[in-house]
């Protein structure tokens, strides 16, 4: 049975009010305990990695088995899931009544943690296109400050400047149009808000970068260089841009004035 923690229904209604009415008209009435804006539309799945993200088994084992494999692949040895969530919340400066968007939230482990940092009417909205991932998030990670929406991040269903914090962890290297997704994330980020991403990173040493890119391409993963996202954030007028690399992962955060 789906968990229904105290306040979870109210959190879902707060999330619903953030969605543009025109988008909400397309919501699937059959969705249980989350908002489904795309109904029968499925996630793009031309690559092995993208197919994994819409697999029910992967969704069920994501935190226990799938993520540890990813940690090893990225070279993030010693970084626990709890520590990574805490660092993400710190980069986003979460507190109080903020409205937070977790893009490509997967099974909702980050979303629920973000919600635990909020109070009052604060809400963390987990957003993902994968039906199995959203279903797992609803089962395990609903709360009085965390709710879930299924949709396509290339066309976020929110008005400009809706969220105080926006993040996307471990997904931009998988999605078909990562720069469209980032543009959408920036569009919905409010003045004074913060954005944080974690994605792939290729070495600055050309032969190593080429080898990483070739290997990643075979499974449908994109490798980004060090300058890409800081340059995008700078062009968008963001400030306080910070970047950290660990193994083949990079963490980039910034602030909108």
Description:
The protein has one domain (8-192): Vaccinia Virus protein VP39 (Rossmann fold). The relative contact order is 0.15. Strand 5 (163-169), helix 8 and strand 6 form a beta-alpha-beta unit. Helix 5 packs across helix 6. Helices cover 39% and strands 20% of the residues. An eight-stranded mixed β-sheet has the order 1-4-3-2-5-6-8-7, sandwiched between helices. The protein has ten helices and eight strands. The longest helix is centred in the N-terminal third of the chain and has 19 residues, at 56-74. The model has no long low-confidence stretch (mean pLDDT 86). The protein is α/β, with parallel strands linked by helices and 257 residues long.
Topology:
Elements: H1 8-18, H2 21-24, E1 35-36, H3 48-52, H4 56-74, H5 81-92, E2 99-103, H6 109-116, E3 123-128, H7 131-141, E4 146-150, E5 163-169, H8 178-187, E6 189-200, H9 206-217, H10 228-235, E7 239-246, E8 249-255
Parallel strand pairs: 1-4, 2-3, 2-5, 3-4, 5-6
Antiparallel strand pairs: 6-8, 7-8
CATH H level: which superfamily?
Vaccinia Virus protein VP39
Q: Residue ranges: pLDDT <50 for 5 or more in a row?
A: none
The CATH top-level class label: Alpha Beta
Order of helices and strands: HHEHHHEHEHEEHEHHEE
Structural class: alpha/beta
**Biggest sheet record:** 8 strands, mixed
User: Tally of extended strands?
Assistant: 8
Oligomer class: single chain
**Measured distance between first and last alpha carbons:** 44 Å
- Rounded Rg: 17 Å
Q: Can you count the helices?
A: 10
Q: Estimate percent helicity.
A: 25-40%
Q: Output the CATH topology.
A: Rossmann fold
Question: What does the average pLDDT come to?
Answer: 86
């Amino acid at each position: 049975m789906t968990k229904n923690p105290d306040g979870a229904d109210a959190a879902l209604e707060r999330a619903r009010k953030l969605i543009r009415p025109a988008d909400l008209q397309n919501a699937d009435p059959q969705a249980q305990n989350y908002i489904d804006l795309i109904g029968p539309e499925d996630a793009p799945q031309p690559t092995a990695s993208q197919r994994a993200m819409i697999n029910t088994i992967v969704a069920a084992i994501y935190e226990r088995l799938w993520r540890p494999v990813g940690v090893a692949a990225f070279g993030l040895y010693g970084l626990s899931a709890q520590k990574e969530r805490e660092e993400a919340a710190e980069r986003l400066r979460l507190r109080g009544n903020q409205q937070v968007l977790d893009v490509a939230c997967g099974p909702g482990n980050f979303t629920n943690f973000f919600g635990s940092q909020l109070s009052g009417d604060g809400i963390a909205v987990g957003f993902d296109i994968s039906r199995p991932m959203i279903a797992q998030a609803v089962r395990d990670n609903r709360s009085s400050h965390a709710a879930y929406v299924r949709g396509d991040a290339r066309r976020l269903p929110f008005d400009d400047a809706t969220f105080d914090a926006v993040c996307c962890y471990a997904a931009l290297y998988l999605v078909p149009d990562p720069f469209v997704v980032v543009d959408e994330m920036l569009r919905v980020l409010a003045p004074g808000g913060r954005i944080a991403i974690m994605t792939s990173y290729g070495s600055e040493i050309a032969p190593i970068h080429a080898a990483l890119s070739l290997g990643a391409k075979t499974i449908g993963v994109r490798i980004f260089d060090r300058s890409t996202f800081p340059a995008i954030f700078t062009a968008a007028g963001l400030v306080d841009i910070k970047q950290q690399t660990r193994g083949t992962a990079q963490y980039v955060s910034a602030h909108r004035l």
